[in-house]
Amino acid sequence: MSELLLDAKDLVKHYGSVEALRGASFQAFAGEVVALIGDNGAGKSTLVKCLSGVQQPDSGELRFDGKQVVLDSPTTARRLGIETVYQDLAVAPDLDPAANLFLGRELRKPGLLGRLGVLDKAAMRRRAITEFSQLGVRLQSIDAPIGSLSGGQRQSVAVARSVVWASKLVFMDEPTAALGVVQRERVLDVIKKVRDAGMGVVLISHNMPEVLAVADRIEVLRLGRRVARFSGSDVTVEQLVGAMTGALSQEDAA
Amino acid sequence: MTTRSESTVDIANGDVEPTRRSLWQRVSGSNTVWIALVLVALIVVFSIARPDAFLTLFTAQTLLIEAAVLLVLGVGMTFVIITSGIDLSVGSVLIFAGVMAAKTMEGLSPRSDSTGAGWGVILVGLLVALVSGGAWGLVNGLLIARAKIPPLIVTLGSFGAALGAAQLITDGSDVRTVPKALARTLGSGTSLGVVPNLVILAVLITVVGDLVLRTTRFGRYTYAIGSNEEAARRAGIAVTRHLVTVYLMVGVLAGLAGFMSLAYFRTTTISGHSTDNLNVIAAVVLGGTSLFGGMGSIIGTVIGIFIPAVLTKGFVILHVQAFWQPIAVSAVLVAAVWFDQVRRRARDQS
């Protein structure tokens, strides 16, 4: 049995008078892919933001690795080994893939030059090539601005960046939304690789076949609450849709 | 699109590594090269037309001296525009810093005449210029990065306010005494026989600015913020602090430019810098730095500053009406931005 990594209980988040989360709970284990699904407005993105430190819940309890934590910024989350791939592709289009991979974590030259802030671009490029190749990310050029790459390649770099730096848990908010069939497969392969390496992956997706293909567990969010939990192996699309729309609910899920 | 897929290499199989683009590919993709060619062409044309008048030491010296002050402003402006910001206040801050420095040096001299002042007083004057320039930069930076007011509005405000403050301090008339020691060395002195000191200082600032932008983490963050501020923030970059630092730096450089201008003109030239901001912005953009941020270089700015300067000199030498210069520069500027737009659109569609 894999260990419980992230345990969120009864998270509440208001935006003005709007209640985005009304006591949502969520769990993620090491070495598994857990899908977080729900209809538009169910609170998926808000939940991910609260769990990755982008926003803070108004109330609720958050435990990571058995310890109670407060994620007051993405940096705090990162320090704990939590990385996030954002839906809106948080990459810098004018920088090359290596620069994006190392954004905020630049390697500096040894010695005095490094202390003056001089970057070790060659080392970053070498390491980037190794990391990309291990993840099966195909790029035609390592120093072209990322904006000149295709959407799929851009997405691959964004995914690679989170995976390379994560040590415990990766959130992926709609990582395949903009991708073609081949590229989608590749991202799903990366997700499986990350899981097999013992990390936890939280996949937020609208695509039911994709969820069924890759998720070990599924948690369903509706109107800011968790309404159902399924094991990935014995669930049907009908059950998922039922839980998302409120036709089906589990008493013990919340 | 076919060429793209053909050139794609599969590093998963370990056959081929992703290639670095060839020098030409990297170079020809930027506006900077084309604009450099324009500059070279201009120099060649003017040199052929009047080799006796254009290719002279005197022409080169005056060309460089006139560009020196703009160059110092341009280095800072390049950083600001790469963050996708703008600073309209540089000319006014330059005047304000010059006035503050001149007034301080007069105040420290007997009978408010700083002509005979020594190096102690001059250094205090320099410090005052840098600090008063930096103060405006800090105000700009805080209003832009913290209060989130658009840079165009903030610096339009300080453009007016800094000039007004300079006029209040001087009652609108230029300070006319400047230490001779300063004017003779930094203002009109030369080193190595022929190189104006003013130019040496400007080159020094330019080289340091270029190194900081190209090789350091500070430079990398400047590009990242201009390219996608939200991505930079999520990557853990202290965006607010970085932006404040950039505007502070521009202010300090404008202060230095004010001091240089004071040394060169031997007066505060209150009414002489009203279009410095536009000239500098035009030069930076001409040099291939994108107004949308994320892209640009100091070397481009250097070229962008010399195109109008060379045009002016060339027109004077060829007896073309000098009024043609702004028309020619404006046409090139608009064309440069248009190319930038077209290239971006092509890129974002791929």
From TrEMBL, chain A:
- UniProt-recorded Gene Ontology molecular function terms: ATP binding; ATP hydrolysis activity
**UniProt entry tagged with the keyword ATP-binding:** yes
Q: Which UniProt keywords apply?
A: ATP-binding, Nucleotide-binding
One Pfam family from the UniProt entry? Answer: ABC_tran
| Span of the signal peptide | none
Q: Which PROSITE patterns match?
A: ABC_TRANSPORTER_2
The family database entries (InterPro entries) matched by this protein are listed as: AAA+_ATPase, ABC_carbohydrate_import_ATPase, ABC_transporter-like_ATP-bd, P-loop_NTPase
Q: Which SMART domains match?
A: AAA (SM00382)
All residue ranges annotated as the ABC transporter domain in the record: 6-248
Nucleotide-binding is among the record's keywords:
yes
Q: Which domain of life is it from?
A: Bacteria
Which PANTHER family does the UniProt entry name for this protein? CARBOHYDRATE TRANSPORT ATP-BINDING PROTEIN MG119-RELATED, SUGAR ABC TRANSPORTER ATP-BINDING PROTEIN
UniProt name for this protein: Sugar ABC transporter ATP-binding protein
Q: Which organism is it from?
A: Solihabitans fulvus
Q: What is the lineage of its organism?
A: Bacteria, Bacillati, Actinomycetota, Actinomycetes, Pseudonocardiales
TrEMBL record, chain B:
Q: What is this protein called?
A: ABC transporter permease
Q: Give the top-rank taxon of the lineage listed in the UniProt record for this protein.
A: Bacteria
Q: Provide the transmembrane region boundaries.
A: 32-51, 63-82, 88-105, 117-139, 191-213, 244-265, 277-310, 322-339
One Pfam family for this entry, by name?
BPD_transp_2
Record-level Gene Ontology MF annotations: transmembrane transporter activity
Instruction: Write out the entry's keywords from A to Z.
Output: Cell membrane, Membrane, Transmembrane, Transmembrane helix
Q: Does the keyword Transmembrane apply?
A: yes
Localization recorded for this chain is: Cell membrane
What main location does UniProt list? membrane
Its Gene Ontology cellular component terms are:
plasma membrane
Q: Matching InterPro entries, A to Z?
A: ABC_transp_permease
Q: Does the keyword Cell division apply?
A: no
Topology within the bilayer: Multi-pass membrane protein
